[in-house]
Queue: 4 jobs
Job 1
Amino acid sequence: MIIKNVQLYPIDSPMIELGYLVEQEGKIVKIGPMSQLPDKDFGQVYDLPNHCVLPGLVDCHCHVGMFGDAIGFENDDANECSDPCTPHLQALDAVNPFDRCFQEARENGVTTILTGPGSANPIAGQALTMKTMGSRTEDMVLKTPSAMKFAFGENPKRVYHERDETPVTRMAVAAIMRENLSKAKEYAEKTRRAGTDHEELPDFDAKCEALIPVLEGKLPAHFHAHRAVDILAAMRIAGEFNLKYAIIHGTEAHLVSTHLAEANAAVIAGPLINDRSKPELAEASIENPGILAAQGVKLALCTDHPETPIQYLLLTAAMAVRGGMSREDALRAVTLTPAVIAGVGSQVGSLTEGKDADLVIFAGDPFDVTQRPKLVFINGKAVVS
């Protein structure tokens, strides 16, 4: 397949005003200006003057397939509220690939998502990264697990206050994290010594086993944190245990942007299209992403679906531009940066030779919120046409 006479947004290189892209066997095999178009038959031809091509959009924090659309508790599989520490839970066992929101994601150009547990528990479980096309989760997955979900602030406090159980303070939330990370560290050390010093293996502990990759830096911690004080607490605990991490939401991240930039911390900002429905969101503004980007913070934008429905990811980017973010930074924040944060930057997120042919084609400006994509491809197959 070849798409030609289009404006190309590679993301990882300068825009090509009039160019072409070649797909073969689900991969991008060639991209360049029309002046360098090879004289060769590439099969199906899409000749699309006045159209633009973007890489498939990536949302690296949402709960698609975890909260049932138009259904209540019966199909809410994102929060296991019976235990404040559940790192052994896997989104793979909960995602419903038949949720209609996957279709709405595809129709609006969102081709890859990181979806997983909610924020009821201080340690909630394992998220995964997947494509939005398919009928069996295992076939849609790009990486599992791709993050361990942690949560600070109001959500765990509210959930366990209602149950009259720990934690009900920020002190207890942090203590639960420290306690279980320390247990996992000790468990890993005992397991290591058992293989060298003839000591007995410790009893199997599923929670510790799940946290060991986090301690080893193989699995990033994704910290739910809105308020600046919670962002700093997340950074503190990450520093104590030398964790690789990202801050999710970061509603007040602009207040500590210099600290985030100095730590080279990633922020997954959003949702931007919602009301100030709780105290933690009192300072919410669409200017936050632009301030962070200007400070050099590694920034992605998210919908936090269903807080903002997944189909409005590009609208979220447009709102960030309205709030002062550059168009280039906003497009990167819904393509390549979230792909890197989700651990799949080598596969998706930019129009790069060798990457998956996940493409979104618009008849005009992609920031024109009155239009939907004209064509969407996932792995080179048209899923919207």
Job 2
Amino acid sequence: MNEEVAILENVSPGQFRHYNKGFQETIFQGLLTDHLWGMQMVEVMRPDFFEVKYLIFLCEIYFSYFTKYKCFPTQSLLINIIKESLSEDHDLILRDQIVDYLLRMRGNPRPNDLAYVKDKTLDFCKRQAFKEALEKSVELISEDNFDSVLSLMKKAVSIGIPNTIGHDFFEDMEARFTRVSRAVCPTGIPELDQKDILNGGLGRGEIGVVTANTGVGKSHWLVAMGANAMRAGKNVVHYTFELTEQAVGLRYDSNLCNISASDVIDRKKTVEKFYSSEETKGLGKLIIKEYPTGAASITTLRSHIEKLALRNFKPSVIIIDYADIMRSTRAYDSLRHELKLIYEELRNMAMELRVPVWTASQANRESANSDIVGLENMSEAYGKAMVADLVISISRKAMEKSTGYGRLFIAKNRAGRDGILFPIHIDTSLSKIKIVEEDSQTLKEAVTADEGEIKKQLRKKWKEVNGLGK
């Protein structure tokens, strides 16, 4: 018995000091900046695992808020809660330590070792639990209370196993009615951004896919999404795997300056004057990066984004033209499985970076003469549609291309209504897309519409566009 106690008493505290104060500070910074990871850590971490008072205090407030509302507070709200919690007669040293830590964290928003710390946090939690269990066991063994020692060790071993049963429907009702802010990047098309469809736009961590046949306008759609995001003050990273950086840049010039693509180069001074005017001061920034077809993988994009972070550039939205011609990080015999993996990797990146991602997907040959392109027309991999949060298809038959008119169909939408068809006009000279009528159609209405009436309307619009009268 005495030997067992001696072994426990001789455990050096230094053995538990591998995870120092800097490591623990980075853990809490990870909790603040990555809410998805924070939700996982709530299941295994306790505030008293931290060894410094101000981190314990902050973690208690942070986790208490999550327990009550089932979401984390924003950093500004957290600061207000801290101010309210620290009364006038509170520990002045604690207050100074919290202020100092928050200032240091703000000065280094993305520490280089954050990924490593996240990877090792579960080990940290287990060590802290075992340390506590060992310290308590010394006293319990000296009292011959072996059952309690066994219970303590079982509890320490269970660290990493979820400690909550989930959402209790009746007990946790308040959490369902707490309004959670959904940060979005608008499409700039009012009919799509309305509340019952996209509720403002594509949200953080979400994947939006536009699918269409060759030459219909996928790349123009992606430029339109990037340009409209810039108008909303968002920073955009646009990856191109087919067009050159200069060609994509000229399309953005056309869209933003409202100058036809064929005239942009000849109107350089007009473009420069527009970007130096007052109305462009609110524009977000744009980085265009070109990679050869089939050369870029998700690892390539992550590396580039990390380089941008060193220049203090953080994207608000990522445009990828387009995911189908990326390289997967793992080789498969089947192209279908490879494409599904690419989309899954994009989804993981979007969720980790907390930014929306727009990309495009090639539609199959059967869709070329279809009035409506559906999920079943996504080339090679139906699994791509399973990963995406939003799938929009664009269809234009050969006779419609000269008029610029076509159809936009919301094939899948996790944020709101889908199965909706909109008549659209695509101006490829400006990379602009607009819905030409306010009234939308459901898929059933579109399918059962009189074919003769549709042709009549198309002929009318074609004449209007070509100045041939009614």
Job 3
Amino acid sequence: MRVTVNRFIIYTWGCQMNEDDSEQISSLLMQMGLAPTEEANEADIAVLVTCSVRAKPEQKAKSKLGELRILKEQRPWMIIGVCGCMAQREGSALRKGRPYLDFVVGTAAIHQIPDIIRRIEERRSFAAALDMPEQPGDAARSLPQRVDRQGTALKSFLPAMYGCDNYCAYCVVPYVRGRERSRPLDEIVEEATQLAALGRKEITLLGQNVNSYGATLGISTDFADLLRKVSEVAGIERIRFTTSHPKDLSDRLIEAMAELPKVCEHIHLAVQSGDDEVLARMNRKYTSAVFRERVAALRSAMPDIAITTDLLVGFPGETQEQFENTLRLVEDVRFDSAFMFSFNPIPRTAAAAMDGHLTERVKMARLNRLIELQNEITSLINASQVGRTYEVLVEGISPKHDGRLTGLTRQNKTANFPGSVATAGQFVRVRATQSHLYGFVGEIDNH
């Protein structure tokens, strides 16, 4: 019987907040003396960081649990845990029919994982930690505990806030991530400084609605102020942020984005629908005209900005004309790219109980038409930029292009290009020679 664990593997689905949760879990496990592995058959601990925004990532996570069950039959000392939004939503019920599952940890209890693992090693009994702040008054005293990062990397996610108060009709996030609460500005700057000392050159500030930062702090500090303070951190050379809600995209924020050289020329601004009636039923709190005006303001301030978005088709009651309004907005705005989904009901959300659910056939037909349109726009935009030179942070060898290096432009587009792996971690200028949906193939421009 094995007593001491020494390797771990983490599987992650969903948003950048989940990516940060995974990095936090990895750091906790490394502080326990464990080493990461990419091979499940070497792992003594397997942790699944899950997503509940759509049905598909939940299905993938449950399928992975089935694979791990087979592996645990061969390695009975293995500890298997589930974290993240699906863990928070389903709780201990996840263990029903899964006696091999050792722990379930919610979105606000990641810091408890080391103690939970130690208890499991001693007692081999199931453990759960699912407490979460629910009331607005909890905001100031219920921020998740952060852990010092471990390992080396060029980029890191850095949460500026947690939770969400928007209650969009289709979204489960407020129920599984809790009420909105912002981290103190000085605490975020301190963590950014620590990341710079570890060699991070790029950070992405995170929040479910990051540009409402500061609302729970009780002082006159907003996200524009935070961008300015983080820009002062030596060693951090690029700053990104996500996700932005159109109703909170202020002129002050746009001004800060345009003025601060470290802030990249990219924003992910989720529109969801181009029809005002659908937006109202979604509880999005803006109109298509307001969205268009905010896009115009962004492009006026930053002509080189890349704008990406989320689009959700087939919302309950969506008519063909309302769907056509979404297509019209996409044609007019011309997003650089988009995450596109068809509606599926999530338990506990308002939309799940609405009348007028559409058939899968109708939803998929609309989604396919939208994808075709957006892919055409993306292809045309990228093709128009062939010949331009972009600043790229070299991340290493591309996993999809033999021998080529890869990195992102400031506009968040992938560039693959020949070069020496010795340039990894450096900024180079790359001239785009071919365009693709994801970005470019190019060559280093030494001029």
Job 4
Amino acid sequence: MKTYRPLPVSFARGIGAWLEDNTGKRYLDAISGIAVCSLGHANPEIAEALADQAATLIHTSNLYQIGLQQQLGNRLTQIAGMDRVFFGNSGAEANEAAIKLARLYGHGKGIANPTIIVTENSFHGRTMATLSATGNPKIQTGFEPLVSGFSRVPYNDVAAIEARIAEDKNIVAVLVEPVQGEGGVNIPGNDYLKTIRELCDKNDLLMMLDEIQTGICRTGRWFGFEHENAQSDCRPDVMTLAKSLGNGVPIGACLARGKAAEVMQPGTHGSTYGGNPLACRAAITVLDIMERDNMAARAAALGESLLADFNSALSGIEGVSNIRGKGLMIGIELDRPCADLVGIALEQGLLINVTADKVIRLLPPIIMTDDEARQLVDTLSALIKNFLG
């Protein structure tokens, strides 16, 4: 089906931060398969683990105990400070599980029409429930009637959340992204999550974080909420993960703790493929590498360096509205639509992305070297200057 508009290139192989097309031309990958391949392409440790697991056991289903799933669940809950986890196959499925969990939680409290507060410019997936939660009318058009049970407020506006809680007794949860990726790399105020945590505690609501893009070291911490966690406990009740968790192998996770951890019971949710041995082996290997090589610190340092270099290279350039980022989520906002830059960069052997119409979004692999980062800055800065004329 014509659901995509693919660029005129097909990749045959990859290594590290580079991809090679079927003519042999190389491209520096600054989007990592949309924040997925944080450990690079053709990572040898992951390839070895997958080959070994494929030759041993790929799938049994959740009718039976899965040792690798239990091992991965133990690792994730320990790292995140959570209690339980449900495994699916994608970020949308992880968010779908979180939405179902919130509704069950609400019904358990006697609320007939449980409602989740979500935000403008958010992105949570393309299933019917997750696109209904998403704050982008473009992806909702044509799919009405949308799923009910969502109440939208502006992003980075805790006063709006507080007011909505006060006026609607059906609110059971608040679902936000620590940094909005698809929405334009929007970074909230320093106490945004802390205040949401306080409001949820005060009103017996679930704080739910979509960490599908921010999670697994991308922002310079294991999880995006940890940037505020030093000041107070900003751990969510529910957190969703995907993307970098499998480094390209499809896997999603919905983690829960405390009162949210026991809401799901046998028969309330499930997945045929979710958490199968192959996907779990890949994710365990990802966690091993991230932990051993302190990839969170590397993402923080590389992101800081890239921001400084872009600010220096584009300083005073008319048409550059803002340069922002957290770790290796970087947005360069222009004063005009710039989707054409994607194709121009492709011709120069650089893979970038434009979101929210005029924000160049960069999601480089964490294993990108300093020399590759300099090449990214030099190439993209020149393209932006030429584009702005």
